[in-house]
Amino acid sequence: xxxxxxxxxxxxxxxxxxxxxxxxxxxxxxxxxxxxxxxxxxxxxxxxxxxxxxxxxxxxxxxxxxxxxxxxxxxxxxxxxxxxxxxxxxxxxxxxxxxxxxxxxxxxxxxxxxxxxxxxxxxxxxxxxxxxxxxxxxxxxxxxxxxxxxxxxxxxxxxxxxxxxxxxxxxxxxxxxxxxxxxxxxxxxxxxxxxxxxxxxxxxxxxxxxxxxxxxxxxxxxxxxxxxxx
Length: 230
Known about the structure:
Blueprint: H1 3-37, H2 40-71, H3 75-108, H4 120-140, H5 143-173, H6 178-210
Helix pairs in contact: 1-2, 1-3, 1-4, 2-3, 3-6, 4-5, 4-6, 5-6
């Protein structure tokens, strides 16, 4: 494979991953809209999105593995392909989270409407903003944006813990609302996982651009001034 063809293949891989990213982000937005409006027709759209996301995950993985086998890339190109494989998996799991939320919405539609002490749309807005920023970091090859995403995760974790505390209290004190509260709790957990996947994507961007492994709660400051793209 010539160098020009190889670089074009890398661009194609990046473009396909961004298409998948758009589907995953849209799926989360739709799932939360289904929760907000109790519109089950939106859940059907989420289901169809998951099928498309799963298909793209397989195709992208195969393309990335083919590039590794044929070209045996070095340095930054190798890190890019490895990062694509890992980001691909996280985006597929974002799609899974969207489906999980829509499944919970379907269950809640069979129950009496209840006012619950949790702001799912606000939590979703923060989690999807993390996904959006992590993907912007990937598009631009910008480790600074990626580092900013890492700092956002604590806010989602805090909201999830608050939701757990408030909703378990509902289950304890208002047993007739326990099914609704349990479903809302599971939706909150799914959104917390979306934020975790966004964090993973940001970490992979830093690995690609700087060659720095910042997983496992390493200090964000520790990667400042790390090696630049080679």
